[in-house]
Amino acid sequence: MEKNKKEGMLKKLPLRLLNVDDVLKSYGGFARFYSADVPVEDVVSLVPKEGFGRVLCCCEGGDFALTFMGKGGPGTEVFAFDICSAQLFVLAAKAALIKDPKTMNFAPSLEYLSTVNQGRIQRFPQIISRFNVQSKLVNIKTKKYVEFPVEFTQKFGVEIFYSNRSGSTDVYWGKDQKFLSAIRKNIASLRFIREDILFLPDLFKQDSLDIIFVSDIHMPSLMPFYIERLNALLSCLKSGGVVIGDADRTGDLDNLPTLIEIFEENAKGFHLKKYGEKGRVVALQKL
User: Fold this and answer.
1) What residues contact 58, with CB distance under 8 A and at least 6 apart?
2) 18 — phi, psi (to 5°)?
3) pTM to 2 decimals?
4) Cβ distance 216 to 246 under 8 Å?
5) pLDDT digit of tens for each residue in the chain (287 aa)?
6) How many CA atoms lie within 13 A of 185 on its CB side?
7) Closest CA to 86 of 124, 36, 31
8) Are strands 29-31 and 121-123 parallel, antiparallel or unpaired?
9) How many CB atoms neighbour CB 269 within 10 A?
10) Cα angle 35-115-124, degrees, rounded to a multiple of 5
11) What string of H, E and C letters represents the secondary structure of the chain?
């Protein structure tokens, strides 16, 4: 961990902060997300006018993190998180491309980034939609596997969730040389965290973040553990800071709400208030 201003906001815990080079050397895999599902300009339009310095951002295909880096101005620190190493690699590969001053038009396809990075990332195979092989159940008390009956495995399959959010990056600033230059200046401060959002509060100190972007993360009903961890996450947000997310409202994943919908529905309990909305994107401000 660098001994600079980050020490004042980070707890000394084993979670690792990686930089672009770290990710490009160590990560890879199948990418489920590549291009943004909602316009990045809708997201940044909901940022408080007084600006921001530190952003915790769900990685996805990296376009939101890059946009925050360009929009925030000099010294902006973006912490991109994802449990999937391939998604972190996509962002790192895009950042490395922008870092090259020869990049004048930023609109890389996933296939292009895969080629220039020796195939370290690939498109998630959309032909995989259903398996006829079931996972095994485990008896919690005996710790032994319980096999499914043959009749069951012949009749039912396991659905594999994938996204078709891939193709080429299409962002409003792709040909904006000033914006690309602003991103370029902040790339050294870009950090990657391979971790679930519920455990990120273990890394950040209270009141250390200006923005938390949760994208369209889905979450089941609020159990006490989730409430505890989400409150811990919001404690890392400064008063007046905003949490922004995609209020999909379609319930496309087993009818589960998105995290921003949960925050919105329980705003009073989480000490939040509505800040703004643009299209599917909702922003809530911490009281």
Assistant:
1) 64, 80, 81, 82, 197, 213, 214, 215, 217
2) -110, 155
3) 0.82
4) yes
5) 444 444 455 554 456 899 999 999 999 888 878 888 889 999 999 998 777 899 999 999 999 999 999 999 889 999 999 999 999 999 999 999 999 999 999 999 888 999 999 988 887 665 444 444 445 555 556 656 666 566 655 555 444 344 444 456 789 999 999 999 999 999 999 999 999 999 999 899 999 999 999 999 988 777 888 999 999 999 999 999 999 999 976 655 457 889 999 999 999 999 999 999 999 999 999 99
6) 13
7) 31
8) parallel
9) 12
10) 45
11) CCCCHHHHCECCCCCCCECHHHHHHHCCEEECCCCCCCCHHHHHCCCCCCCCCEEEEECCCCHHHHHHHHHCCCCCEEEEECCCHHHHHHHHHHHHHHHCCCCCCCCCEHHHHHHHCCCCEEECCCCCCEECCCCCEECCCCCCEECCCHHHHHHCCEECCCCCCCCECCCCCCCCHHHHHHHHHHHHHCEEECCCHHHHHHCECCCCEEEEEEECCECCCCCHHHHHHHHHHHHCEEEEEEEEEECCCCCCCCCCCEHHHHHHHCCCCCCEEEEEEECCEEEEEEC
Find the radius of gyration of the CA atoms of the chain. Answer: 20
Q: Please tell me the total number of residues recorded for the chain in this structure.
A: 287
Q: How far is CA 281 from CA 219, 239, 250, 263, in A?
A: 17, 21, 13, 13
Q: Which of 67, 167, 162 is nearest to 112 (CA)?
A: 167
